[in-house]
Amino acid sequence: MSVQQLPFLEILQDVSRGNIKTPQKEFLSEGDIPVVDQGKQLIAGYTNDPARVCKVTPPVIVFGDHTRAIKFLDFEFAMGADGTKVLAPRIECDLKYFYHALRATHIPDAGYSRHFKFLKETKLPVPTLSEQKRIAAILDAADALRAKRRETLAQLDTLLQSTFLEMFGNPVTNPQGWTVKTLGEFAEIGTGSTPSRKNPDNFNGDIPWVKSTEVAWERIDTTSETVSELGRKSARLKLYPRGSVVVALYGQGKTRGKCGILGVDATINQACCALTTRSNVSNIFLYSFLKQSYAQLRSESRGGNQENLNLSIVKSFAIPVPPSDLQNRFATIVQSVEQQKSRLRAHLDELDTLFASLQARAFAGEL
Prior knowledge:
Elements: E1 5-7, H1 8-11, E2 12-14, E3 33-36, E4 45-47, E5 60-64, E6 70-73, E7 78-79, E8 84-89, H2 95-103, H3 116-120, E9 123-125, H4 129-168, E10 180-182, H5 183-186, E11 187-191, E12 203-210, E13 219-220, E14 225-227, H6 229-234, E15 245-248, E16 259-262, E17 267-268, E18 272-277, H7 283-292, H8 294-298, H9 311-316, E19 318-320, H10 324-362
Parallel strand pairs: 3-7, 12-17, 13-16
Antiparallel strand pairs: 1-9, 2-8, 3-4, 5-6, 5-8, 10-19, 11-18, 12-14, 15-16, 15-18
């Protein structure tokens, strides 16, 4: 079925101008008025200044000029700093339909430092109003299923955090008075490097190679890059065994201090270190402990303009060591929860595939 295509600017208009913007340094952790910027989170912070409420009538769409983030808002809000575009309809339409249409639009990164420029040059399919509402309802329902799965995954993570604190207490205060040891006393700790990129044969092999950006509170089963045996030998990379705990050493954002656990044997680059525990400490307990101690470990960073962790800092980082049977009991709980999470992720992948298919059909006039 042929669907009318209209230029973006005939459908939506930017109504950002004239509104007071709230810089990130002024965001509150809680407050009366949510602040929406161009980050991934729907609500980036809060303000209590009523003068900063965006002077538009919801619902509206918020577009990140730099990040390409797209959000649908049906509540009053304040705008974040530069790059936050607020889009309101020029024509009678179902705005939720055009929210989904924008999410389905491929917005290229190359050549557009300001991505709104690209949108202004595009056209969007405009079916009848009743058809817009029908398509939006279908995509909303499919998207809600994905959101429920993500929420359940987050709840399982919260359950593990609560279980850890119930069994072991606050890792910083060590309320049980367990023996305290440094990581270097019970774990082999090492780092990695980067093979020369001048020789392409060093890469695209069968050996996983972990970078700090891939250390993100999860099991690491795959990596964006791999190295060859030639690359491993030329860079003298150690192959760390499955179950090793990996810590990100560098990163000025949130990366530094994050940890992950290897689901496969892998090498790492110089921005990470790997910890292989000895028999008296469970690798799962260690991984969970470091997650709980993220802020404390980050605070140990050293350096001038760019603070980082290093092997010496990690080796000297002290943790309480509970009895082995308690560690093993916790590890059993973690393994059970991780199995549930694995099933949920597989189902979420299926829902993502379904949603992408519905999107493609909807905006091709086939739904």
